[in-house]
Amino acid sequence: MKKVVGTFLLAFLAWHASPAQSNQKMDQFIDRLMAKMTIEEKIGQLNLVTGGEATTGTTVSTDVEAKIRNGQIGGIFSMSTPTKIRKTQEIAIKQSRLKIPIIFGMDVIHGYRTVFPIPLGLAATWDMGLIQQSARIAAEEATADGINWAFSPMVDISRDPRWGRISEGAGEDTYLSSKVAEAIVHGFQGDNLAAHNTMMACVKHFALYGAAEGGRDYNSTDMSLHRMYNEYLPPYKAAIDAGAGSIMTSFNDINGVPASANKWLMTDVLRKQWGFKGLVVTDYTAVNELTAHGLGDLQQVSALSLNAGVDMDMVGEGFLTTLKKSLDEGKVKLTDIDRACRFVLEAKYKLGLFEDPYRYCNEQRAKTIIGSAANHAKAREIAAKSFVLLKNENQMLPLKKSGTIAVIGPLANSGANMPGTWSVSAELEKTASLVEGMKAVLGDKVNILTHLGSNLLEDPTYQKHATMFGRTITRDPRKEDEIIAEAVKVAQQSDVVVAALGESSEMSGESSSRSELDIPANQQNLLKALLSTGKPVVLVLFTGRPLTLTWEDAHVPAILNVWFGGSETGKAVADVLFGDVVPSGKITATFPRNVGQIPIYYAHKNTGRPYGNSGDFEKFKSNYLDVSNSPLYPFGYGLSYTSFTYGEIHLDKNTLDSSSNIQARITISNTGHYDAEETVQLYIQDLVGSVTRPVKELRGFQKIFLKKGETKTIKFEIRVKDLKFFDNNLNYVAEPGDFKVYIGPNSRDVKEKDFKLL
Predict the structure, then answer these.
(1) Fewer CB within 10 Å, N or C, the chain?
(2) Where does the signal peptide begin and end (predicted)?
(3) Is the pTM of this model over 0.90?
(4) Residue-wise pLDDT tens digits, 677-732
(5) Is residue 459 flagged as an active site residue?
(6) CA distance 197 to 603
(7) What superfamily in CATH does domain 636-757 come from?
(8) Ranges for all domains in the chain classified under CATH 3.20.20.300
């Protein structure tokens, strides 16, 4: 016991030293510890197993307690509560030879018990302060429940909404995704990773997972280095520069080499080019899956993964069962095992686990912090600000708090679906449905009628796959026409119909790729029937991705996209529908007109025969015969209950050099009838370059508040660094020449001005 106390005291003293002294103390501490470790114990630190509380993969770890005693486990994820985690930690501290504490992880993706909007919805707030607060609250709750490692943020750029995991990221844009990544890392890790209420972030999935071929999960990615460095890698780099303590490998292969065996990616780029000094962990059984990729048996692929630069093996136990044999056979080096072991131990040291392995096991914190009223109030605020008003014909919204409203649709009465995908710690049974949330907000001011309207999906097997993990939506066994006819009778008794339609929470997320992105056909039939009543209809759209809404946009007078808003979805929807909150969300992934347009994104490049903006087909131009090139809703788009007028752009000068910046000014006026927020977006176009450049790139944004009738002048600084990109030789340069600056409420409706870089 004296040795344990001495070990903890040495670690404790390090926290009161300067950063350089702390690093030196940490190095000395780990040097001494590793000198005592056997090869088997070092390899044991590289083994991350599951506690099995949440289903995030198909493999379940076994004999966990015995392996802890034998020094064969470095970390556990999917285990919670201070009692359970303390009990498990005590096995390591009291019964293993070297008493090395365990790190405890969890998929804390968009909240913990208090759930915030799905990440695609969080990004739609364009409010980095709120996004950071959501991660801070998630860290407060998760650490109060014993957890100190979050497998978040997911920073994968995706320009293909068929990919279900687009819901877990910030969308299609490199710049915005980088800002979101920074905010989440700062929210999780705070200023002191060793504090009892901060946790280590894990950036995922490294790399290019969002560009999987065909939008099919786990699929291959083949990409030029030029595109990779300019469009897909920056958010990972931004998260690392923000101080993220760990990074997770992706499932996909990259130009023929799977990420978990990709030495160029894990060592040359991550370690050497970017200087990352944190922990590299695989995704769930990713090492084992290298065999299915065709790289060899478990021993071969485990050696490949370690040699590539991976430090920790999640669940598969290939490292645990084969690395000693590979070392004896000369297929791996002791220096690589030592490297991996050191990064695992450093993570634990930085989290303060050697100082106090039970620092996250405070029962009182768990009772007072998790799911608090204040946390739920913030979740409600953020949810309301994530919603995007896609259409509001004749100012149909907001609704009056009077009369009778029919809330109809398969998402109307399903509280379990409100948190959205990857909310593994949500208390589904305690989450209010849309109808329950509306009743809580409106009380007896409004008479609310409700009906299922239609099944989520006509095919019961498809619906079963789309409502896994406790997200069941009860099916009506009757024919769809009968269900719809009954719903129409309910609608006819109302003044206004709220149609709660779209996806269930598990129709997006991991392994939820879709080849068609329409609202399901039976739900569309319901919507048509509701419109035929002549009653005003509001479509409250639930989705984890951009959908193809061409028919809905043409026929439904009001469309409010609410994503999946988290624990307080129902109340937040009521807040916006009835005008207590004015919608301010803006989409961060382009909505296509049809699936055939995919990939569609705003920062595309011109061809040598660029398509004009007329919308008409032009022979021998880069366009479709059967549909416009333009999206249904462009990147950055979102309406308000008020109206904003943009003036012209004014530049304080029209030339830029390395010694000074250009200031761009624009006046924004609230010309409507509501006080509201607006996100002002700045884009840059490089007109002439050594390589082809995008037609626009987001390089700044400001979320502002304007009272009705108020005008503000907004200022942006344009700097040389805002013009930089990776050229064909991967040099990071800003090339002299002509540029345009665009400012507007979205990527399409912009003012423009010219300037030069000298």
Answers:
(1) N
(2) 1-22
(3) yes
(4) 999 999 999 999 999 999 999 999 999 999 999 999 999 999 999 999 999 999 99
(5) no
(6) 39
(7) Immunoglobulins (2.60.40.10)
(8) 46-366
